[in-house]
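ok so I'm stuck.
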Amino acid sequence: MKGEIFQGDFYAPIVRSIVAPLWAFRERSPYLRHLRRLEHSPRRPLEVVRANQWRRLQALLHHAVDHVPYYRNRLYEEGIDVREVRSWDDFSALPLLTKDDIRVHRTGMMAGNIPAEAHHRKKTSGSTGISLDFVVDDQSMQWKRACTVRHDQWTGWRLGERVGALWGNPEYKKSWRGYVRNALLERTAYLDTLKMDEVAMARFYYRLRRLRPTLLYGHAHSLYLFARYLKKTGKLDLRPRGIISTAMTLHDFERRLIEEVFAVPVTNRYGCEEVSLIACECRAHNGLHLNLDTVVVEFIRDGRSAAPGEPGAIVVTDLTNRAMPFIRYKVGDVGVPSARTCCCGCTYPLMESVQGRIADYVVTPEGEFVSGISLTENFAMHLDGVKQVQIVQERLDHLLVRLVRGDDYTDGVLERLSELVSVRFGPRMGHAVEFVKAIEPESSGKYRFCISRLQEHPF
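replied:
not stuck anymore, here's the structure
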């Protein structure tokens, strides 16, 4: 069936060989040259990769001290001379960069030697309540673009082929040039995740049947909701070559349903707006390879490096953005580093999983930390008759549980909920229930199962 689905897309090779190179030439973009180089880089010996990272990191540190007031002043105050940073251990002693640092010192974080016309202004969705404004220089954008295409192709999709995307507020709709670019180059059909009702999902399904994209791409939970709709309605004939889940934690139960409905493995990918792609699964689907070509990744717990298998705060350094360097930036997510090697031939280290945002951890009155990702399997899945659940913690000893009733809802759910709260969070944890028509996505289109508004965390 797969072979039948993808026959007839005669335009894809034209995009690959003619349209994309001409478009890159017109934009003076080197991303296709970067892509050719990056396609082979993951098979280099790891020591060669690390040595290259170290050279680039040292150049970045000297650039930051010479041209970025924030780093020059901060390192001076800390008594740090970058000329004395001679090892990875020395590097790990540099101060962490937080979101508050960026908000307060945004102007001072911009490099004086990068002209404003080379800046691309970016803004995060503000999933923790406050958005973040920053800039990325053009050369960094091109490296990030090439890395993204490389990892898209790990799914079996090839440049120029059609894409189906479940994504909020598509960029191409902002101008007529965007429409032209999407039609001729990017070839992406969108389902706006800010409005994922059954009418919109049905319309998107019939459009995908007509276009037959080889790649399906979107937020993990949005892909899951679409797959659940397709299973419910018996629309089980979409067969993309690859599926990329990104922008939020992919839970095991979501992966199982998506793979059942589309009959293809899901490629889990992790990144953030600030530094772009951080890690991605390969075709082995046994952990996420760290993207060592553009970022240095650390996992920190209680002020030290997390051990393999131990959750830690994800800290990244962007090796490419000179306009506004992010050095040892605390992303706000929790990941688990791995000591395993992959059978795929890629030498880049693995991350076992992303366990969600630090703000997605519930803290019990006894001081235990429970991750939102574990709660989906050990809490929400045990509430029969409930369509959606969201847990909000605003006090150490109290939770607000938002519930969306399903067709088979009964009042016994509330009794079961009380039992689960007591078992999972201890007898001292109180809770209230709020019935809602739907758990609305955030402005980015993402859904959050668990939200903690507490300030103290172990990471």
